[in-house]
Amino acid sequence: MQALLPLVLSAAALQSLQPPLPVERPFVPQGRPLEGLVITIDPGHGGASHSAGYTGSARGVDSRYPEQDLNLKVSVHLVNLLRLAGADVRLTRSDDSRMTLNPLEGPPTSRSEELGARVKMAAESASHLFLAVHHNSFSSPQAHGVVVLIWPTDKRGNDQPLEREFADVLREEVEAAVPHGRRYNHYLSQHPLVTFSDQPSAVIEFGFLSNPEFDRWVTSPGNTRTEAVAVYKAIERFWRERRSELEAERTRLFPAASLLGREPEPTPAGRLRREMLGGMPPDPVRSEEALRRYAEIVRQSGGWLAVRVARQGDRMVVEGECSHPLVAAFAKTLVPDGADFRVRVLPPARPMVGAFPMASVWAEPALASGQTDQVLLGEIVWVRGATPDGSFLLAQTPRGGFGWVRRDALEEPDGAWLGAARKVRFLADTLVDDFRIPAGAELPVLREEADRVVVALPRGVRATGFRKEASVPRDRVAPVAAEAGRGLAAGAAAAALRYQGAPYLHGGRTELGMGDAELVTLAWASQGVRLPREAAALAACGSLASSDGEVPPGAVLVFLGETGLPETVGLGLGGRRFLIAAPPEVQVCSLNPEDPVFDRGLAERLAFVRTLP
Predict the structure, then answer these.
(1) pLDDT in tens, 519-536
(2) What does the alpha-carbon distance between residue 104 and residue 122 come to, in Å, rounded to a whole number?
(3) CA separation for the pair 574, 286 (Å, rounded)
(4) How far is CA 236 from the centre of its chain?
(5) Which residue among 276, 337, 506, 520 is least packed, with the fewest CB closer than 10 Å?
(6) Helix count (H) and strand count (E) of the chain?
(7) What is the pTM of this model?
(8) pLDDT tens digits, 326-376
(9) Which tens digits make up the pLDDT trace of 25-55?
(10) Please, what CATH class does the domain formed by 482-611 belong to?
(11) Boundaries of CATH 2.30.30.40 in the chain?
């Protein structure tokens, strides 16, 4: 029978984990300089471009990359930057759906109607600015430069200096970042995109896809990001220099919108707080019930919150423990001002190993308090706390749930146990004298004999003469396919890295826009592994691993939001690095403070790491 030899990750798999772009922090706005700006961004073409009677967008002369896809990629990246800077942004399209002035009446009957639908969105949102994002094409391959299309005349024939100035700033900032030849004058045209409304509007044409040099540049990784950053800088500069004039023009064109403003969208934390409190202000009775409900949600999501509520006169006192500072922070929002809030964060996790054939995990630190899970022999759990007398330990099992385990059922692991190169999984319950090793248990291999395998035990038992090892028949075990799993994980990480630099788009699943959970699920789908697409569901996949050590390739990193619940996920790349789709783009980050791509915000939000498959 084949020997249980360790297998290693192939060099080819490791090589595939090299990112296609330089690993660096992406450009992000500092502060919120665009607070108050309302803007509509229109990715050109798409929509009805695949319909009969429509010629479609231009394509790269050599790359054959469609203009409509470049436009969308730049626009989605730009929208992320604008929103990070505080702007209220409308994106006319995020897919190839047809747009219409009257959605309930079906698809548009003409291209002009679809163009009108795009600009109508800007008018209905009372945007300060409207910008259509395009790339150009011409019969001559020598055409090479930035073109801005405007019609700086309102419906009454008056000049619109703001539109001219907007075009000037756009051209200057884009030319500073994008390869170009000659400087083109602004193209004055009564195109529907710039004449539908009197609000300042422009169409930016970054360059000519008919020019081989520009086609090669714009389709190289990272350069649509360069275009987006250039336009962001133009908008930020124009808002900084002409905010008062833009505000006055918006008031003139849309007086009602300027007076009423727009109700800010509630944050996820705001929505959950409202749900927990029933839309009412907190009081002792309401808050106690809200804390109870919130604790249930936290535990269901793989976290821990236990609170005890008391009264000291009219004052509410809340004591307890939780698994993460963000859980404590949100829980505090559920109690009245002036309450004595003493919920502490549990200490860092330490690994321990199941030493009994099977040990019950209890809902409370008491026997028969409701079994929630079982820890098998050799299974690693992560201990976060203990009862005052030390008889029960609060542990998080590989399945992700917290519960209480008897202290004598767990053993401190030694280095050889945690770093075991080879393990076997028991195929059936196996007796060593009267000591049961249950099916499913995974134990390290110490050595092999003719027809037997000697495995390590967490502690010596009477059946083995109190030696920390046991000899079992070879046919009762099978090697844990570590190499196969590592190969799949490396393949998933390599597949995800192909999206590095793609703009972030909630729910997106392509290089034109990618969501965080979607990045993880697509990466593992490339290896034939189907995962759920929600962050909360991904938080329950695989096995729990250490959050303090190296992050294995393909591991799922789970980050909490302001609600203290799973909100975002990333994918391990090895070492302390990981890939994550987060505004403004799919990017390589690190948990190592010494790494140039260390992200303190994400490091502080990390809840746990789960290894797959």
Answers:
(1) 999 999 999 999 998 888
(2) 19
(3) 46
(4) 26
(5) 337
(6) 16, 31
(7) 0.90
(8) 999 999 999 999 999 999 999 999 999 999 999 999 999 999 889 999 999
(9) 999 999 999 999 999 999 998 865 555 555 5
(10) alpha beta
(11) 358-479
Q: Which two tokens mark 198? A: 């009197």
- 108-151: per-residue pLDDT in tens? 557 777 788 888 889 999 999 999 999 999 999 999 999 999 99
* Distance of alpha carbon 22 from alpha carbon 501, whole angstroms: 10
Rounded to whole angstroms, the Cα distance separating 392 from 245 reads 67
Class assignment of domain 358-479?
mainly beta
Q: 82-111 in b/e burial notation, b at 16+ Cβ within 10 A?
A: bbbbebbbbbbbbeeebbbeeeeeeebeeb
pLDDT score recorded for residue 84: 97
Q: Which amino acid, one-letter code, is at 48?
A: A
Residue 516 contacts residue 580 (beta carbons within 8 Å): yes
Separation CA 477–CA 162 (nearest Å): 76
More confident residue, 193 or 243: 243
Distance CA 28, CA 15 (A): 30
3-state secondary structure of 205: strand
The two tokens of residue 482 are 């570590």
Instruction: Kindly report, as residue ranges, where domains of CATH 3.40.630.40 are found in the chain.
Output: 31-260
pLDDT at 103: 60
Element (H, E) at 373: strand 371-376
- HEC profile of 516-574: HHHHHHHHHHCCCCCCCCCHHHHCCCCEEECCCCCCCCCCEEEEECCCCCEEEEEEEEE
Number of other CB atoms surrounding residue 52 within 10 Å: 5
Task: Provide the pLDDT for residue 449.
Answer: 87
Mind spelling out the 3-state secondary structure of 415-451?
A: HHHHCCCCEEEECCCEEECCEEECCCCEEEEEEECCC
Q: What angle do CA 476, 479, 481 make, to 5 degrees?
A: 145
Q: Where residue 450 falls among pLDDT bands split at 50, 70, 90?
A: confident
